[in-house]
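Molecular record:
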Amino acid sequence: MTQSNHFQQVATRVSLVSIVGNLLLSAFKLFAGIVGHSSAMISDAVHSASDVFSSFIVIIGVRIAARKPDKEHPYGHERFECVAAILLSVVLFLVGLGIGAGALRTILSGEYGDLSVPGGLALIAAIVSIVTKEAMFWYTKVNAARIQSPALMADAWHHRSDALSSVGALIGIGGARLGFPILDPIASVVICLFILKAACGIFKDAIDRMVDHACDQETETALRQCALDQEGVLGVDLLQTRVFGSVIYVDMEIAADGSRTLREAHAIAEAVHDAIEAAFPQIKHIMVHVNPDTERDKPEG
């Protein structure tokens, strides 16, 4: 199985699990909200339903990103996944604004006595939602990190935002049952800030990947060491990396003994190329250029 096919299969499987989970959870929360007379739980059910839309965006983005290079796109389609991550960050941002705006309207109205007291079923639904969405967050996040998928990572944080929303619903429902209905909108405002922060982080990461941002220093250090470990490599003169969607492109110049033949220098470059691609699955392409080691070639004395 190729790296691209593995990437697509993992992302699709995780997204399908999210879709099924969110559909079941949304139906349960909607039922609990109606039976338990909780407007917060009904709103939370709608929030979970919006995650289904997000998962479909991930599936579409990943499928397009996995397409092979063609005449119009000779470097592939990986950046379409970044587009999906940007769309998800915008959806997440709007969800956060909606939660915050609704909560502020309730707080500023001052009409807390008109708020109905939710039933026990709504409280149970909030707890079930928190546990379920947190489990979905970690399941999605671990797989997103494993295949280096920005769109899947964005979907993971969408699950976390839903879990935080359910925490707000739990506090609000519990507070209303204890005689403090104002706790519901106050908790929602705090949750709104968490969601907006997550959305901005996702957006920034996706933009960095769109503009050929260099990969992290730890990865570059490991790349240098991998090259230096190959026989015949005397140094690394240049290393340039760029994150291209969910994959990495590398340009490297290595130093070798200038007295070696062209065939030997080519073999050294091939060894570096193969070793790095084997050690770093996320690297789609690496160009290795061989320079004569000028310090070694200087005449003695």
Q: What stands out?
A: Strands lie at 235-244, 247-256, 283-292. The two ends are 56 Å apart (CA to CA). The CA atoms of residues 295 and 301 lie 13 Å apart. The first helix runs from residue 3 to 35.
